[in-house]
From TrEMBL:
EC number: 1.97.1.-
Function comment: Activation of anaerobic ribonucleoside-triphosphate reductase under anaerobic conditions by generation of an organic free radical, using S-adenosylmethionine and reduced flavodoxin as cosubstrates to produce 5'-deoxy-adenosine.
Name of the protein in question: Anaerobic ribonucleoside-triphosphate reductase-activating protein
Protein family per UniProt: Belongs to the organic radical-activating enzymes family.
Required cofactor(s): [4Fe-4S] cluster
Keywords linked to the UniProt accession: 4Fe-4S, Iron, Iron-sulfur, Lyase, Metal-binding, Oxidoreductase, Pyruvate, S-adenosyl-L-methionine
InterPro entries cross-referenced by the UniProt entry: Aldolase_TIM, NrdG, Organic_radical-activating, Radical_activat_CS, rSAM, rSAM_sf
Gene name of this polypeptide: pflA_2
TM stretches of this protein: none
Keyword Iron: yes
PROSITE patterns: RADICAL_ACTIVATING
Molecular function via GO: 4 iron, 4 sulfur cluster binding; [formate-C-acetyltransferase]-activating enzyme activity; lyase activity; metal ion binding; ribonucleoside-diphosphate reductase activity, thioredoxin disulfide as acceptor
Length: 160
């Protein structure tokens, strides 16, 4: 698949990962987290169908790294993996947010999700849980979510 449903591409974020980032908000999410800050993102049809090359072109900025968000980028993993691969070829550091845990993504054995994981430098995993919401956390919304350095597989959430 060479297209993905995209809600928006936001430039110059400092809250969706370390440093200055462009954030690609993909449509579609199967998690339906209670208290979700973006329930509009759940429905694929709320996004605009964009070609992989168009997404990359719009997201690229020499000063920004990239965050894949949504919805859930792993919901459209086939196309998003192609986006991430191209962004990596441009030397971008990539963060990705997902409602699945890393363990679930690995257990799913979905080849597109596994491919997408290969391009992710930092994964913020786990569903948003309203009862564990904590506004003091950096780069995540609830205590159950982890910030995982995918190169070392180290969980950095213990520092909070």
């Amino acid at each position: 698949m060479d297209t993905a449903s995209v809600l928006s591409i936001y430039h110059d974020s400092v809250v969706d990962g370390e440093g200055l980032r462009a954030v690609i908000f993909f449509a579609g999410c199967p998690h339906f987290c209670k208290g979700c800050h973006n329930p509009k993102s759940w429905n694929l049809r709320n996004g605009k169908e964009m070609h992989v090359n168009q997404i990359v072109e719009e997201a690229l900025n020499p000063l920004n790294d990239i965050t894949l968000s949504g919805g859930d980028p792993f919901y459209q993993a086939e196309a998003v993996a192609k986006v991430a691969k191209q962004l990596k070829e441009h030397g971008k550091n990539i963060w990705a947010y997902t409602g699945w845990t890393l363990e679930q993504l690995l257990e799913n054995k979905d080849p597109h999700q596994l491919e997408l994981l290969q391009y992710v430098d930092v994964l913020v995993d786990g569903p948003f849980i309203l009862a564990e919401r904590d506004l003091t956390l950096t780069f995540r919304g609830s205590r159950n979510q982890r910030i995982i350095d995918m190169k070392t597989m180290q969980d950095y959430t213990m520092d909070d």
